Amino acid sequence: MGEHAQEPTPENMTMMQGFEWYVPADQKHWVRLEKHVPQLKQWGIDNIWVPPGCKGSSKEGNGYDIYDLYDLGEFDQKGSVATKWGTKEELLKLAHTAKKSGVGLYWDAVLNHKFAADHREKCQAVEVDPENRNEFVSGQYEIDAWVGFDFPGRGDKYSEMKYHWYHFSGVDFNAANDQSAIYKILGDKSPGWAKTPDVDGEKGNYDYLMGSDLDYSHPEVEQDVLAWGKWLAKEIPLRGIRFDAIKHYSEEFLQKFIIELDEEFGQGWFFVGEFWKDSLSDMTGYLDRMGHKFSLFDAPLVYNFSKLSQASSADLRQVFDDTLVQTAPISAVTLVMNHDTQPYQALEAAIEGWFKPLAYALILLRDTGYPCVWYGDLYGIKGEHPFPPSCGGALPKLMLARKLYAYGKQADYFDFATCIGWVRYGTWDRRWGCATVVSNAGPGSKRMHVGEMHAGERWTDVLGWETQEVVIGEDGCGDFTCGQTSVSVWVNKDAEGRDRFLQEFDSNIYEE
Prior knowledge:
Blueprint lengths: L14 E3 L11 H14 L4 E3 L5 E2 L9 E3 L19 H14 L2 E6 L3 E2 L4 E11 L2 E5 L4 E8 L19 E7 L4 E8 L25 E3 L4 H17 L4 E4 L7 H14 L5 E4 L6 H10 L5 E3 L1 H11 L14 H4 L4 E4 L20 H9 L5 E5 H5 L15 H11 L4 E4 L5 E6 L9 E6 L4 E6 L8 E4 L8 E2 L5 E6 L3 E7 L20
Helix pairs in contact: 1-2, 3-4, 8-10
Pfam families: Alpha-amylase
Cofactor: Ca(2+)
Family: Belongs to the glycosyl hydrolase 13 family.
């Protein structure tokens, strides 16, 4: 069969989380991001997970403190018309530019809870043990809870639904005595927590996370949020949704939400959930129950990266042990950092800066997983503890190497604890291939086979960190090196696209 009859090799896709927690609250994020979309596409980003764009409790809120699903920066509510990120008009301009540039947007849907109620309502409740939410630590009594949502700035536009105490299963504050606790709301109209495994079984029952916890067993809540999903799909051109905190609300509801969206709007939409837990069996169980029309962020891989980065000369060959990308690669979104794993936070999942280029090579240049690059690593972090872009400026080059060269059969050289390598052989129509070497100790060297068809070629490191040339022998092998605690990515120096690595990625997104 001639090559023209063969199927073209699908292009590698890469997503980016398009924000970090400490982006300035100046309502200009949509505008800045929109200007950078063409550059991001040029360097290999195909889809951007945008921050929660619904109105939060204040104009400084990141959107996880969600107030109104139907306010995308359109109504004067909670101190401003714009969200922290900007106005709905600016969001639509971003969406238009992204679509024109061939970049998809993934919406960050915060459906578990609400914040900043408009008024209090009295209801019956019982206090529960924070470490075992099935155990009562008080008798039933009346509390005064912030659970009344009227949306006065929006009125009835888009949705006439108003929220009352019986639309929620729990709160964490009683205004009658100014006491904080976890209160399970009781009453004829409130069945209490969702059952496990409809929600996660951590802490006995992890239905309650924060704020005023929505009760998806109430038909009015279900109906309003299902309607919102369809409304959002009509308002904003999207390619998918990232679901926040899926351990904490009804799995059955989420299945219904995805099926209805998929049938009406979302052919080819991508759905990914934040199920942040270092338990592979819990994650694969969730995927099984969701029917595998769904992906999860590979939290166990992030924990592995963290452990490797914080140890001296650890065994790199174990990097993929007990990870989602190893067990269910088709459903794994691989990542190094996100807004929950900032480097200065005392988190188990914090990753040391020296290890980030190695970790990004391990998610971007291999043949499994859907990699997600983090805005804070590309553009730096603002706030009280600012950080510059990570990876010594190499991250855009790693993204571009994925886009141009990381294709075809993979051969692993996981034969030494502190220095590993792998080769991608290319395909009939993406023929260049690449060879990657990673070391978490001293300078590394690997003799690897890239193919006899490359005999006589001169290969160089696209990152520019290794400066010599490797001449491929008649046997198709070369001696590829990398520096101490470093990574190198070797490609034929005359390969198509090599000139693109000479350009500079503009990481100064905040310039006026």
